[in-house]
Amino acid sequence: MWNSHWVFVVAENLFCIYFCAEFVIHLCAYKSKVVALQDRILLFNCLLVCLNVFEVWVLSFVMLSRSTHGDVKIGTSVVRIARLLRLVRASRLARLLPVMPELMIMIRGMVAATRSVITTLVLLAISLYCFSLCFRVLTYGTQVGEEYFQSVPESMLSLLLHGVLPDMAPIVYNISDENPFCGILILIFIFMSTLVVLNMLVGVLVEMVSVVAALEKEHLNASFVRDSLTTVLQRADVMEGNQLSQEEFQKLLVTPEAARAVKAMGVDVVGLVDLSDYIFQGGRRLSFDDFFHLLLQLRGTNSVMVKDIVDMRKFV
């Protein structure tokens, strides 16, 4: 780290100091340290702080002291493993998940789809195995067989990279030639990103489009009915003082155009007339907005709520 630009050195040390101070403050907030040992978040933060201190201060000090004495042959594998430990710090982002419900839904959806994804991968593996046997036998002794189907595992890999994931073949081969473990890792990443995340994104987009389409359709129908009823009321001139009485209400519903508009909303016109005594009980009068809101509540596609049961008991 000390060979990096001074900005990165300062930033790493400031972050390490901040994480240590946060952990100490969290620990001191407990009156009993025995109770603090039962806090999983505190223990998790303790692990992250220890890893951060080891990477930023301990490991950097060891590397700096060895380079000062001319011993530059430090275990590079150990350094690489230690640098991979910084990925653990990204797990602190899990504390932000409760604040981001959409991300929680996506993660829970991925967990719920694990069984389906595994089943799909097993079916894919069986298909690759069966077809690799066929191609291995049919192309034996040919140039194509020597290039792509020298053995059953190579046949399965060729079918996977050139048949299922044709665009990924060059990068997978190049990485596998350098490091087989990295080749397996890139395959896992490809399957995770293409089969799980991107397909889930497609599903979310389809769901959102269907929801928006349903809302827009409902909004258009409501606007059409509102305009139709407004036109009928203006022609019939049945509203006195912008208020609708029971007689004017019944007179409006017998109008063919108004009846068609109300029926288009999914409201039973005959049932609405029967409810007029309950709606206008006590000589009540309705404004146009209240009347239209009432129509929206009486649609047959609405879900039943407790308020509807209470209103029904009052009506009975």
TrEMBL record:
Keyword terms of this UniProt record: Membrane, Transmembrane, Transmembrane helix
Keyword check for Transmembrane helix: yes
One GO molecular-function entry: monoatomic ion channel activity
Membrane topology (UniProt): Multi-pass membrane protein
Gene Ontology CC entries for this record: membrane
Main location: membrane
Gene3D superfamilies: 1.10.287.70, Voltage-gated potassium channels. Chain C
Ion transport domain location: 7-211
Subcellular compartments: Membrane
Pfam families reported for this sequence: Ion_trans
Residues passing through the membrane, by range: 6-30, 42-64, 118-138, 184-206
InterPro entries reported in the protein's UniProt record: Ion_trans_dom (IPR005821), Volt_channel_dom_sf (IPR027359)
Name of the protein this chain belongs to: Ion transport domain-containing protein
Lineage: Eukaryota, Sar, Alveolata, Dinophyceae, Noctilucales
